[in-house]
Design goal:
The protein is of the alpha/beta class. 35% of the residues lie in helices and 21% in strands. The strands form four sheets. The protein has a seven-stranded mixed sheet. The protein has a four-stranded parallel sheet with strand order 5-6-7-9. It has a four-stranded parallel sheet with strand order 11-12-13-14. A hairpin with a 2-residue loop joins β16 and β17 (437-438). The two termini are 33 Å apart.
Amino acid sequence: MTLIIKGDIAYTPSPQELVTIEDGYVVVGDDGRVMGTYSSLPAQYTPATTGTPTAPTLVDCTGRLVIPAFNDLHTHAPQYPMLGNGFDCELLPWLERYTFPAERHFEDPAFADHWYRRFVNRMWRVGTLRFSAFASMHTEATRRLMELCQESGLRPVVGKVNMDRNAPDYLTESTDDSLVGTEELIRWSRTHTPNVGYVVTPRFVPSTTSELMRGLGELADRYDLPVQSHLDENPGEVAWVRDLHPDIPTYADVYDRHGLLRDGRTIMAHCIHLTDHERDLLRDRHVFVAHCAQSNMNLSSGIMPARRWLDAGLTVTIASDVAAGQDPAMNRHIVQSIEASKIRTLEAKRGGNIGQTGKSGQAAEPPLTLPEAFHMATKAGGRFFGKVGSFEPGYDFDALVVDEGENPLDLPVADRLERFVYEGDDRWIERRYVAGREVPEPFAQDAGLAE
């Protein structure tokens, strides 16, 4: 049955184009895909007499914003319980003192079930309806996260974290156990969680041996799966990789030589301190670069030169990096990405040293605009999942209906979108749709989250 949503529509077909239609319509077909957006409803879609089986369903959201749902390509589900902790540390001490002890708890299936319910519920609340999540290294807990995501109606990808070196004993598996557990989950997911994809997940180069990385690359190739990991986040991490692989020229090349930069199927988070060679390699492999501005500032990692990477042809998305990012809400990360780019611009104008390691006095780069950053958090990230993140014809209708309450200034749609991005929260989101289907709140009672 055709679905028609009436409201104030905003979406970004391109980074430079914000389309707004006040009091417009989105028409969605039986397959959950957008058929078109209109300022007035074409005659063929006019709802027929009530009760007619073929009559379109009209959802009247007059006065509310209708925008694409958010897509977050980098989050850590088992870090959700530790939001807001450890930000006096840089990356490597933060992992040792806070992250690894927190992830250890997920060896307990009951603990995992409780916290993963809360995590999935929170993602629904903030309007992030597709995401790419690191689980922990625990096979059963990862299985439970995938089951809960399937039950929720959200459509993420999830991966068991793989670590066989340079981690606490309680989080380190043998290479064989890590590969066997990963393949078991891959096969299981194809039957049991058809709407939740599997993503091959080496934590990062320092915690995975060459044997494990090579085995994971072979699994990704055998089952035609995407890959997610971390790259060039922190100068200390970059130096550590150089020490571990002195025969390989760059951090990105380590992944590439082990079959983990799959063309158009790989997410690399952070990518702050890329060399020119790495930049070109990621562009040529069509890697999705997940920009985590809040996390990078929290852990003093640096500020990604997002404008430079976009101009160089990289696919740059915006991501939360929970829990190094303390807020799962993607509108907050849009704001911090814009603010971080403004800091880079100001520092460059002053001749400061900010951004890539060893580079200073860069020419000032224009900061990100709101349409660009909104595009990065919707359509650019949605491309990882297919035709997702826009209201162009043929795109899955993943959408949020936003009621921002009283609008005394009678703002135009573009300004109201900006107001939601900068000021809004989950209480403003009235409805959520995934592939044309409205998704109700998951697990509120079980997770103790009901109002």
